[in-house]
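Notes, Module 5: Reading structure tokens.

Key idea: the token line is not a picture. It is a compressed description, and you learn to read it the same way you learned to read a sequence, by spotting repeated patterns. We will look at two proteins. The first is printed below with its tokens.
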Amino acid sequence: MRKIFPLLLLLSFATTFSYAQKYAVIDTRYIFSKMADFEQVQKQVENQAATWQKEIDTKQAALDKLYNDYEAEEAMMSDDLKKQKEDELFNKEKELRDLQKKRFGFEGDLFKKRQDLMEPLQKKVADAVNRLAKANGYDLVFDKSEGKSIIFADPKLDKSEDILREMRLK
């Protein structure tokens, strides 16, 4: 009985270590930077953002002109006309804020545009990661590009180059 207990203990440790998970680390930011399509996506997003920013700047300039006109003529206006002009200015300012939020706010048009354009690239990377993980028996693949959950990763675990080869970009 005394010989069986240590043997069972040793056997349980051996089976525990044989089920150790195999994992890899990738850097999606690096992978995307090596993709030609990514640069095109970035340029499209920047161009769209510039177009929307011009639209907002034009509306801001018009609003500024309305404010300046109001301030110049305020002394000569009746109370009713002042109230009407102030309401008009308030509504125009609200429209401008709503447009800024719609275009550049959290989950606004720019966010959606970037997401739509990035989806095919993300799918390519995800497919390559899945193929590499299955081929090499990885149980987990971590992305170190965000850096929030990985404090340290041994460089030999980084399989980003393997992903690029899998995608035939290298």
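Here is the second protein, with the sequence above and the tokens below, as before.
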Amino acid sequence: MKKCFLLLVLLSMASCQEKVVEKPANLIPKDKMKNIIYDLSLLQGIKGVNQALLDSNGINPSTYVYKKYKVDSLQFAKSDQYYAIENIKDYEKMYEEISERVGKEKMRIDGQLNKEADATKTLEKNDKVKVKKDSVKQ
């Protein structure tokens, strides 16, 4: 009898809990949300470093990303709010994954820039050697 009473109390408590935010009808799937947030992060970073680059190309970061993923700002805001409130641990994990992705991309780009810098130094060194040889021949 006590078990039945306890079960009844737990079920009634669970049914009385109100959801803080309702699941949006057009909820953006998590993987797509991660891609949207990643792209927004990159474009906001570019905006912080070189606003003129975006302005000269007529790019508004948010508008560009929403159009790319075929979502609107309200759909994004409601989906973001839902994920943030529904399960904060999953939301934090999502942002950790995005941060890792940004870090990996930064490392890849830094590596590419280092290769290009090394190649430029090698070309400059070879040009100096060629100029010296040409001047010695004359």
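Summary for the second protein:
- The chain has six helices and no strands.
- The mean pLDDT is 81.
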